[in-house]
Design goal:
Layout lengths: L1 H31 L4 E11 L5 E10 L6 E17 L2 E19 L10 E12 L3 E5 L4 E6 L4 E12 L4 E10 L8 E13 L8
Antiparallel strand pairs: 1-2, 1-10, 2-3, 3-4, 4-5, 5-8, 6-7, 8-9, 9-10
Length: about 200
């Protein structure tokens, strides 16, 4: 129906504008901040409900030296993203850039081994870099499941374990309530990160 079509177009446009504003504001904030404890890392992921798998590269840093708040920016690749449409199962690849805010805290314990663990709670948005569509030739119709610039919100929770002073392992789960037009998707991820501490160092006399 024309009304539903216009409503859908309005929703897609509004969602893109919200994502664009979020990316712009957080990007300007990140650029204006001094480097604290810069992190670079890589993760691999596996879908919890289908054969989706992929990987990501990311960078992260604190907002201030003593803050538990972090910003995260990553490029992600998802392979074999499954969607059911018109009684068919379709599979697509998907690339995205993801920007998020997170809160991280170290687990308190008297046990030295447990003190190496920390928890991170993440909220962010993903912007699609890949256009995925299905063309129904018999009806001359097209269905877009992602367009460049589409945005989606995600949540993630992860555990970090410090292997050494600069290297940590990461394990967690991420959930998209509505991943573009693919529907909800959850995945588990495992990776490693390296901490490059550019903060000021103080030495005794």
């Amino acid at each position: 129906m024309p009304f539903n079509s216009k409503l859908n177009e309005y929703w897609v446009t509004t969602k893109r504008q919200v994502v664009a504003v979020f990316f712009t504001v957080l990007s300007l904030l990140v650029v204006s901040l001094p480097v604290q404890a810069f992190e670079i890392g890589v993760t691999g992921l596996k879908g919890t409900e289908n054969d989706t798998q992929g990987y990501s590269f990311f960078i992260a840093d604190k907002f201030s030296r003593r803050s538990n708040l972090y910003w995260n920016l990553g490029v992600h690749r998802y392979d074999d993203v499954l969607v059911e449409w018109n009684k068919s199962e379709l599979i697509f690849p998907l690339d995205s850039v993801e920007l998020s805010l997170s809160y991280r805290h170290q687990l308190g314990s008297r046990n030295p081994a447990k003190r190496g663990f920390s928890m991170e709670y993440q909220l962010g948005v993903a912007a699609a870099l890949t256009e995925n569509k299905f063309t129904w030739t018999t009806l001359d119709k097209e269905k877009y499941f992602s367009e460049k610039g589409d945005g989606s919100v995600f949540l993630a929770i992860s555990t970090h374990y410090k292997i050494s002073s600069n290297i940590s392992a990461i394990m967690g789960i991420k959930h998209f309530p509505d991943m573009f037009e693919f529907g909800s998707m959850s995945s588990v991820f495992l990776g490693v990160k390296v901490n490059l501490d550019f903060g000021p160092k103080y030495y005794g006399n």
